[in-house]
Each structure stands twice: as C-alpha cells, then as structure tokens.
Design brief:
The chain is of the alpha+beta class. The protein has four helices and two strands, in the order ααααββ. It is about 25% helix and about 5% strand. The protein is globular, with a radius of gyration of 16 Å.
C-alpha cells in the first residue's frame, strides 16, 4: 500500500462510529524543542491548553524533521513524502508572481485527502509553500484559511 493509499484509507475509515470521524488537529511550530512543552516536562513556560490536548489525544513522540528549513518540512508533512523526491528543498521567497517556487501542484496533500473524505479543513497560521495563486492553501485542500502565505507577517487577502 502506498502512503497516499494509506492516508486516504485512514481518513475515510470510520474510527468512532459508522457515521462519525475523529477530529484531527495538527499543530506545527517552527523552532520548538522536545522539552519546550508542559506535557513533555517543561516547567519554565506554562502550556495548559496544549497539555490538555495532549492528555486527551494521540501524541506522536518519536518524530523528527526531515529538513532543517521550515518550508521543506511543511511540504513533507503536507504530502507524506520526503520533499527531496519532488524538488522542494528550499524556503520559497514571497512573490505571488513566482510560479515555480512552491509545493508542486502535482503533489496530493493531506488536506485534499481529508476534504475528499468529508472532513472540514482549515489552516491557521503560516503557509510558506508558495505565494502564487496556484499554490494557495484553498487550492490545496483547505476550505478555510487565516494567516500568512509567506514566512513573514503577510496575511492572505
């Protein structure tokens, strides 16, 4: 079974009841270390809401970034593939006219698979996977978006 088939089957599988799917919340934070959250043992910075989410959900405790830059890592998470396999190995510059630098539209994203399986999908925060209209998160499976297309504080229109 390929990764796409596995993701598609997982998203479509009725895990709780025949007509109900589980909620899925993926939190991605740049420059956050393993010991920087309360549920991981941090006592310096309180994270009560994240601690509560971790206590009531599934925690993935053995994960590693696949690239030292944020955009390629995001591309890997969004596709379930190593970003080197499809040429996304650098952070794209913010330019709506840049038609090359971005997550290739030939790649299927996790939000696309989830939307196809009947999930409501949304993105809050930083996209940083291309600023040209064809790379926009709402063309890549997200139904809602509030945040930044680039790596700075440029909100999407």
């Amino acid at each position: 079974m390929t990764r796409r088939e596995l993701l598609s089957a997982t998203a479509a599988a009725p895990l709780l009841a025949a007509d109900r799917k589980p909620n899925i919340i993926l939190i991605l934070a740049d420059d956050l270390g393993n010991a920087d959250l309360g549920f991981q043992g941090c006592r310096d910075i309180p994270t009560p809401n994240l601690d509560r989410l971790a206590a009531g959900g599934i925690r993935c405790t053995n994960g590693y970034v696949s690239h030292p830059f944020c955009s390629p890592t995001r591309a890997g998470i969004m596709t379930g593939r190593y970003q080197q396999r499809f040429g996304h190995e650098n952070n794209p510059t913010y330019s709506p006219r840049e038609e090359v630098a971005g997550l290739p539209v030939s790649e299927t994203t996790l939000p696309q698979l989830l939307a196809d399986a009947g999930y409501a999908t949304g993105l809050v925060g930083k996209w940083h996977l291309g600023a040209a209209p064809k790379f926009h998160p709402m063309k890549r499976g997200f139904k809602e978006m509030f945040g930044f297309l680039g790596c700075a504080n440029r909100r999407h229109p």
